[in-house]
Structures are given as C-alpha cells and as structure tokens.
C-alpha cells in the first residue's frame, strides 16, 4: 500500500489521505477510487467513518482516499464543497501516476459527510465554485455517489446542527435552503447508492425519501436500501467501529455489487 497525506492548498487545514495499491500488484492496471467524506455534523470529521471505510474499499480492490474537510465556522461559504472538488481535481490530475481510472471516481459520505458527498455531486457546476476553483466543464464532477444515512434537507426533517454549521442559519430559510440537496438534484447528478435505517433518530429517513423523489423526477439512476433497525452512525456496522449490526452490514456488499453494475467493477 502507498499511504500519503496531502494538505490542500485552498484550505487552512483540510487534508487528503490516499490509500493506493502498489504498482506491482496493479500490473499497470488503473483502478477506480473511492473518495470518503466522514460525518460529524460539519463540527468534526468522524474517524469511525474514515479509515475503517477506506480500508474496506481498499481490501475490496479499490483505491481509496479520505478528505478531512473544514468544519464549524471554517465550513461556511461552501468551503468543504470546494475542498471536495479540489480533491477530485488532484485525483484526476495524478490519475496516470497513481494508476487511478480517472473516469471512475466515486464520492462516499456518511451523515453530514453524506451531505458533502451529495453536494459534490450536485454542486460541482455551481457558478461560484467554478469561478473560485477556476475550472469549466465537468472536469471535477464525480462519477458516482455513495451516501450512508445522509443529511439532505434543510426543511422540516433537517438535521439542524449540520445546516447551522454549513450555512450559519438556524432555521429553514434561503441561506440554509441553498444547501438543501433535494432542491439541487438534476439530470447532471451522477448515479447514486443510498442506505439508511428506518428508525434513525438523528437523521430521519425522510431525508432519503426526499432525495429518492428528486432523483426519480430527474431520471437519475439510483439504488436505495432502507434497513428496518439501526442507530445513527453505523459506519461499517462492525465491532471495529463499535456498532455491530449484521443485517445493516450488508450495505457494503450491496454497494460493491452496485458499483459493478454501473461499470466500476474491477477487471
């Protein structure tokens, strides 16, 4: 394994940590990469949803990367979104060197990190971000999204703390609504895999129901699994992350099958 951490130039403290397969193991074969954005209500980046997830994808044959993005007041003005898009830029610019399949970059997030992953897939062509990062076209668009119990809506079912940290607003208004993902989904949104639990007490299942409705309306390909029981923050649903749940743990195998179905499979 090649392990490397890069400090993002557009940030005071955000980092991108790479988990890359050895070139001899690859036999010159480029592989897809999963960019992971941990949860934490935009107040911190949960380590439970970082390396355990990266290692799981790595062991399944994928390259992986973790974005530890800006939080709290530093998350305002779309800063985490800029960092996620800059991370995609770095991965694509170094695709040949690192043997990454540049057309197979998936972003994978959990809870508020799921919001960031979804924002990356729906805000990649936001004019202010395009101007800020000095790019045009779809060069920074992720090719797929993987969302675990994601924060989605700023409305009735909002995880208000996440929206406060990202927007500075404590209510459902125009400021927080700017970040409401179900309002941003359109035909340019990449294929999406979603999983959630029906009784999640922190980020209610209505978040993904609103997202599914928006994806269907925009005719975006998606797959969704709603498990009947499971606390918030399940991550890999095992003892390592202190949330063992054998039923919900199926999300990972289902996700690998879905990746294969959309052309991300390993040769």
Automatic annotation (TrEMBL):
- Every copy of the BD-FAE-like domain together lies at 28-214
Q: Supply the SUPFAM superfamilies for this chain.
A: alpha/beta-Hydrolases
Keywords of the record, alphabetical order, are:
Hydrolase
**What is the name listed in the Swiss-Prot or TrEMBL entry for this protein?**
Acetylesterase
